[in-house]
Amino acid sequence: APGGGSGRVWMKSALVERELGSPEEERRLLTEALGPSHQPGFYKLWLMLAQLEEREMVAAARHGDEELRKERERAARQAYERGVRKCP
User: Fold this and answer.
1) Are 26 and 17 in contact (CB under 8 A)?
2) Can you give the pTM of this predicted structure?
């Protein structure tokens, strides 16, 4: 993990996890990066988190898991809303 690094370092680390097919680790990194002691104002991280949730929503829909689909949809919406508040 990037420690206290810049938003760009967090972003690149999350992208590596995306490429490795590790959505849980990607989510963990993004959530940590967006915490108050790191980079809550780096808009690209909010977009990446929302996009991750959207990808997981589509995957859940493909597998017929309506409950998980709705959960991921709510998470994506929340990430977009929080990102807009933090990065107007």
Assistant:
1) yes
2) 0.91
Contact 11, 42 (CB under 8 A): yes
CA distances (Å), 81 to each of 1, 12, 21, in order?
26, 23, 26
Distance CA 47, CA 6 (A): 16
Take residue 32 and report the two structure tokens written for it: 């940590």
**pLDDT tens per residue, range 6-25:** 899 999 999 999 999 999 99
Q: At what angle do helices 23-33 and 7-19 cross, to 10 degrees?
A: 170
Question: DSSP assignment, residue 21?
Answer: T
Paired tokens of 17: 């996890």
State pLDDT tens for residues 63-76. Answer: 999 999 999 999 99
- Residue 81 has, within 13 A of its CA and on its CB side, a CA count of 6
Identify which of 48, 37, 59, 36 has the alpha carbon closest to the alpha carbon of residue 8.
48
Distance between CA atoms of residues 31 and 26, nearest Å: 9
